[in-house]
Structures are given as structure tokens and as C-alpha cells.
Design a protein that fits this description.
Radius of gyration: 19 Å
Number of domains: 1
Strand content: 35-45%
Distance between the termini: 18 Å
Mean pLDDT: 80
Low-confidence stretches: 2-8, 10-29, 211-219
CATH topology: outer membrane lipoprotein receptor (LolB), chain A
Number of strands: 13
Order of helices and strands: HHEEEEEEEHHEEEEEE
CATH architecture: Clam
Shape: globular
Helix content: 10-25%
Amino acid sequence: MPDARNLLGWLLVGVVGAVGAGAAILGVSQAPGSATLSQAITNTLRAPNYEEVFTESMPEGSETGYLTYQAPDRLGGYIESAGRRTYVYIVGDTQYQSVTVGRGASTAHLVFYRQHSLEPVSAVDPVQYYLRFEHLARRFSARGTTYTVTITRSGQTGILGYQVSGQYIGRVVIEAPQQASSVVVTISQVGTAPPTGLPPGARVVGAVPALPGTTTSPS
């Protein structure tokens, strides 16, 4: 599952310190027909399903994930990097991870390894993970339906932004320009996304093989 938490951990410490630092106060004003930021976040977190595309860009490289969330505990899709894809699905407390295949490889006979998921879907899903940050910074600059807060900490600058699309959040952007790092999450088909599950013909073979010197969670 995606994890840019080194970047976000640095950024969020700054967000906590940015409260009251002079950004425009986010009040009750909003674009016609659009929810307020807080309402849009609440609506999105309560949605029965949605699709999401996330892109993490770091100096070491980038990866893009295409996922579908289905409440309360299903998340699945694939993560692509350097022309290779890894399919990942979480159903309840079980995670299924495929062998990594080429971008154009058929999914009809994918092999999946099964393991216990150490975290609930709500903690792994990028949308839910990043939307929880809003409560750490109550002061945003508002421009139309885009809300941002700029954080400066120890000479480093970070930007946290949310874009409201109607009654939901349509986009989350987290940037650390001086670290050449960013996370962008685009949310669509809220309430109308298709069900998610292992591809037809998938074969589950057991626990993820352990690397030398490591152990795996029980299947």
C-alpha cells in the first residue's frame, strides 16, 4: 500500500505549528453549489464507495496507484512504478498482494499471496489517511473551491491543499518543494464506484514469502 509518511510526518509537524500563524481563516463562505471544506471532508469519509488515483513523487522515483474503496472494509486495485504493476486488495483483515507483472500483463491468472493486514482499511486507504489531516490546521487560504495552508518549519516549506468538487473532496495535494516531493490524490465516482475484488481467475497461494532474516504474518 502507498506510504509517503516520511514526507507527511515532516509536513504535519509543521501543520500543527501553523495553526494561528496568519493564514486566512476558513469561515462559512463557499462557492455556490459546493460544500464547505469540512462538510466535503465529512461527506467523502462517509461515502459508501469511490475511486481514487494517487501519485507519489520523490527524488528516488514515483509511483501511481489506481484504487477503489468500498465501505466499510474493502480496498483494491494496483500500484504502478517503472512500467510494472502490483495488484493489492484488502478485504476485512486480510490482504492479498499479487506477484509484480508488466503493465500489459493479463490479470486472468494472477497469483496472489495472502496475509493478515496489520492495519484497518481506514488507516491504509490514501483518501481517508490524508483527509484526516484537516483537523490539524483550522486556518486555510481559500480561493474558490481550493483551500491551502503553507507551512514553514526549520527553513523548509510545505503546502497542504484540498479541492472541493460539489459535495465531496475531489483532490488532495501535499507538496514539499525543497525536498522535490509531492503526493496528489484525485477522487472520483463517489457513491457510484463499481465493487472491488480479486480479478476473475486469480489464484491465492498462501502467505507472502519471507525475505532472508524476516518473518511473515500468519495467513
